[in-house]
Amino acid sequence: MSAAWQDEVFTALQRAEIRQVAYVPDAGHARLIERAHTAPAMRAVVLTTEEEGIALAAGAWLGGQRAVLLMQSSGVGNCINMLSLPSNCRMPLLTLVTMRGEWGEFNPWQVPMGSATPDVLARMGALVRRVERPEDAAETVAGAAALAFDSTAMVAVLFSQRLIGAKTWVQ
Amino acid sequence: MSRGLDRRQAVAALLREPGDLLVVSGLGAPTYDAAAAGDRPLNFYLWGAMGGAAMIGLGLALAQTARRVLVITGDGEMLMGLGSLATIAAQAPANLAIAVLDNGRYGETGSQFSHTAYGTDLAAVAQGSGWAATCTVGAPGELEGLRHRLRTEPLFAVLRIAPEEPPRVLPPRDGALLQHRFRAALLG
Lengths: 171, 188
Known about the structure:
heterodimer; A: alpha/beta; Rossmann fold; six-stranded parallel β-sheet; 8 helices; disordered C terminus; B: alpha/beta; two-stranded antiparallel sheet; about 20% strand
């Protein structure tokens, strides 16, 4: 049920030497979460709310490790003020966001935050990249990781709902 | 009921002979208390990011398993990040301790009562979140023992402090400066 591109994204995270994988459980990220839990070099950290992951990533960076935050677009809203932490402290941030509320959404409660997600991230200073096609996913994540950690930037990769929906939600 | 500990004396006692202890301080008075105890590069002072102090401590503790990490924060800051107590308990890092300076007030905004003044017991919240070791202290004679425990155990401690606000001692508030000097001191 998982797609090959998700394993390729995981490989990109491994190559980027990600050591801490913070997440709020999400169907679109299920494969990455599963892989992170079984990877010896990674620590998977389940969060109660997404802004915890921004703070965790800051602590990891202070301690010399790289982190990634996996979340759904609804979680981006929870992170807004905490993004002042990497922004003020000039710390890298890498987050992978599965989009809701933008394509074939059945739940109207997902639409407001999904619609605002790219603008909210950009307004808080993050660079936003978007993946529409499975063949672009790993390369986009690898590029985002290099941008985040080599150029000390806050970078969000948005996985479009069409990409996720077409590949993962069919059980 | 006692008035509570003097916060400056309490934090000075906890940070006595810090060695290579990694310290994260929550915004507001705990940051001033940590600075008053002696500025050092391995103090990471928060001036914002309310609710994030404990999670910064977790990321740091997971990255630096051979070092001790101590988060010193206030009751209001901890209340904003209560979920992080569950997140930390799930990871159970052996090298992370949290000390909450609890005066039942939001001191930075006019000393409005916090939830702990209305009955929330943060040590009980931590215990219920899965922390194996929690304690509450309120007497000066307990501080030396607490200092030792915070340096050796994964302990969640609540310090009952008096509501007085001592003069502010302001450390640098440039986050980039604080980040760079911390990493330089820790990582070389």
